[in-house]
Amino acid sequence: MANLTIKKGDITTFHVDAIVNAANTGLLGGGGVDGAIHRAAGPELDVACRKLHGCPTGEAKTTPGFNLPAKFVIHTPGPIWRDGSFEEAKLLKNCYTNSLKQAVAHHCQTVAFPSISTGVYRYPLNAACKIAVKTIEAFSVPLDVTMVCYDDQTYRAFLAAMK
């Protein structure tokens, strides 16, 4: 079972084996956490991501962390919220599961996640938090997982989902 903790902060500053990037399917950087990770990692991350030729929603691919304190960046494109009838919940769960599988494949013991799809992709925050917590806590490999919340609203929503 993965051990989950919730913290408020900037994911680009966490000293963990891997941080997860809430990426777009092109893996070429963007806004929000994706842009912050690309800026902090440096231009080498863009080069490495281009070699991956994108990533489907719900899947995950890994690059080195370059200038980040994390050894690896696990990129996972989350679902864009439409109305809940386009397999958004399944795809979001897959983001967390496949990211954790990538962490195990790269021999990671510590992983930090952002809140996937709850920014510009508009996934309802409380529903997304419940999926994240349930999926991480059910993961069968012992990992130390930190959910890194950038703002108070997200932090409170994840604390509520843990209860």
UniProtKB/TrEMBL annotation:
Q: What InterPro entries does this protein map onto?
A: Macro_dom, Macro_dom-like
Gene3D superfamilies recorded? Leucine Aminopeptidase, subunit E, domain 1 (3.40.220.10)
Residue runs in coiled coils: none
> Which CDD domains does the record match to this protein?
Macro_OAADPr_deacetylase
Q: Kindly name one Pfam family recorded for this protein.
A: Macro
Q: What SMART domains does UniProt report for this protein, alphabetically? A: A1pp
Q: Where is the Macro domain?
A: 1-163
Q: Extract the NCBIfam families matched here.
A: PRK00431.1-6
This protein is called what? Answer: Appr-1-p processing domain protein
What species does this protein belong to?
Secundilactobacillus odoratitofui DSM 19909 = JCM 15043
Q: What is the lineage of its organism?
A: Bacteria, Bacillati, Bacillota, Bacilli, Lactobacillales
